[in-house]
């Protein structure tokens, strides 16, 4: 058996990044480019500067590829790079903070209601535009947690690693974000 045959996908990516494998980088760009664009748009609320930020993210992947250890999935590492770029960009423009100081952890995590989540509602009704508009009205920390969890399908632990917050804080942000999003989707008042 060859080394490549026994490697996991993260280990293969880590090895390729250490070797600066151009074919691997092209494959990663092809696989994750749209997801990065979407993530930046949702974080920043605008398409402005997104292309530059995506390009900078790939440059950082190339420059810092040796620091990816292959012990965990590639996506959290990539989205952490993207998040840091978005924070730097936002600080320069003083747009918002992804690190909210008002996240008080609820005693327990329970769904807002037994009805379908806003994400499920939008998927069923094909009301993606309304969902995107409603997401943009949320506080950035809530919007980011919801996008990473439901759109990028990352685990709570992976999101925790990306945003540098505890799993309970991430859960709180998702809980509060879903409550505010449900209110927006139901036509409620502007909720942050």
Give an overview of the whole structure.
The chain is mainly α and 192 residues long. It has two domains: 8-93, Orthogonal Bundle (Rna Polymerase Sigma Factor, Chain: A); 118-185, Winged helix-like DNA-binding domain superfamily/Winged helix DNA-binding domain (Arc Repressor Mutant, subunit A), CATH 1.10.10.10. It has ten helices and no strands. The protein has helices at 3-6, 9-18, 22-44, 50-64, 74-93, 118-125, 128-136, 140-151, 156-163, 167-185. Helix 3 (22-44) crosses helix 4 (50-64) and helix 4 crosses helix 5. The longest helix is centred in the N-terminal third of the chain and has 23 residues, at 22-44. The N and C termini lie far apart (55 Å). Mean pLDDT is 81; it is low at 101-114.
Give a brief outline of the structure.
The protein has 192 residues and is mainly α.
Overall body shape: globular
Radius of gyration: 18 Å
Total discrete domains:
2
Distance between the termini: 55 Å
* Portion in beta strands: under 5%
Mean pLDDT: 81
Runs in which pLDDT lies below 50 for 5 or more consecutive residues are: 101-114
In CATH terms, the superfamily of the largest domain is: RNA polymerase sigma factor, region 2, helix turn helix motif
Q: Tell me the structural class.
A: mainly alpha
The helix content is 55-70%
What composes the largest sheet?
Answer: none
Count of alpha and pi helical runs: 10
* Topology-level CATH name of the largest domain: Rna Polymerase Sigma Factor, Chain: A
Using the coordinates above, name the CATH class of the largest domain. Answer: Mainly Alpha
């Amino acid at each position: 058996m060859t080394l490549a045959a026994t490697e996991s996908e993260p280990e293969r990516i880590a090895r390729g990044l250490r070797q600066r494998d151009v074919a691997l980088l092209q494959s990663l760009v092809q696989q994750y480019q749209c997801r990065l664009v979407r993530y930046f748009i949702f974080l920043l609320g605008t398409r402005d500067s997104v292309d530059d930020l995506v390009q900078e993210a790939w440059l950082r992947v190339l420059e810092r590829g040796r620091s990816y250890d292959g012990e965990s999935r590639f996506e959290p590492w990539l989205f952490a790079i993207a998040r840091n770029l978005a924070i730097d960009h936002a600080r320069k423009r003083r747009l918002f903070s992804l690190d909210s100081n008002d996240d008080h952890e609820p005693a327990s995590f329970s769904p807002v209601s037994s009805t379908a989540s806003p994400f499920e509602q939008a998927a069923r009704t094909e009301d993606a535009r309304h969902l995107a508009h409603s997401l943009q009205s949320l506080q950035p920390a809530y919007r980011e947690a919801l996008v990473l969890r439901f759109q990028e399908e990352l685990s709570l632990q992976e999101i925790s690693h990306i945003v540098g917050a505890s799993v309970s804080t991430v859960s709180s942000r998702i809980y509060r974000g879903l409550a505010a999003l449900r209110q927006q989707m139901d036509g409620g008042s502007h909720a942050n």
